[in-house]
């Protein structure tokens, strides 16, 4: 680790006091990435910009992170990977897809990750920066996967994805954060039976 500065170039003179290559540098990079992603979004932020904002050599960003996707995911600090939670959903027809979306939400939130998810959701609602980053992640990762392969113009697909999100986010808030009864105590199969038809309509039926 001590050889990093000579391998990857010289750190600007104004930044030489920092301990390049330490965990402190990794946290500086993450903090800079959070600010830039929140302000400019994923596409509007480059790794070179992140390095400049953090005051580190650009090669150090590549040393700690595999690429921009990983840096973004770690910046958002989600308790679970949406791609893993929704794996395979894009191959299903709208009816099966709607049910699997609800089941995936229930599996995740009724796992040991529930406390972390509640804390994350509450923290996100109270932070403009985290809300902006979560919006970017949901648009790029969650909604693209949910809507993959379904018909419609890009505008219609975006609207349908937004409407699906109202059901999913509403379910998470009411069942697991607010804990409104009787939904909070309803059996998972009953939740799927009640919620999936709305999601199926938003996915493919006339709006």
From TrEMBL:
The keyword Hydrolase does not apply. GO terms for molecular function: DNA-binding transcription factor activity; transcription cis-regulatory region binding. The lineage of its organism: Bacteria, Bacillati, Actinomycetota, Actinomycetes, Micrococcales. This is Transcriptional regulator, TetR family. Keywords: DNA-binding. It comes from Arthrobacter cupressi. The keyword Membrane does not apply.
């Amino acid at each position: 680790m001590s050889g990093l500065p000579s391998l990857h170039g010289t750190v600007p003179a104004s930044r030489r006091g920092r301990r390049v290559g330490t965990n402190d540098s990794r946290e500086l990079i993450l903090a800079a990435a959070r600010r830039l992603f929140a302000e400019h979004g994923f596409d509007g932020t480059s790794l070179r910009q992140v390095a400049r904002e953090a005051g580190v050599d650009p090669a150090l960003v590549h040393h700690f992170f595999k690429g921009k996707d990983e840096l973004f995911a770690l910046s958002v600090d989600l308790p679970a990977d949406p791609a893993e939670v929704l794996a395979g959903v894009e191959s299903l027809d709208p009816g099966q897809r709607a049910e699997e979306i609800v089941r995936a939400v229930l599996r995740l939130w009724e796992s040991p990750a529930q406390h972390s998810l509640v804390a994350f959701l509450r923290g996100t609602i109270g932070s403009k920066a985290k809300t902006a980053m979560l919006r970017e992640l949901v648009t790029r990762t969650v909604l693209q996967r949910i809507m993959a392969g379904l018909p419609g113009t890009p505008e219609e697909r975006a609207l349908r994805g937004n409407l699906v999100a109202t059901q999913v986010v509403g379910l998470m808030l009411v069942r697991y954060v607010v804990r409104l009864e009787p939904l909070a105590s309803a059996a998972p199969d009953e939740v799927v039976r009640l919620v999936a038809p709305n999601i199926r309509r938003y996915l493919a039926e006339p709006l």
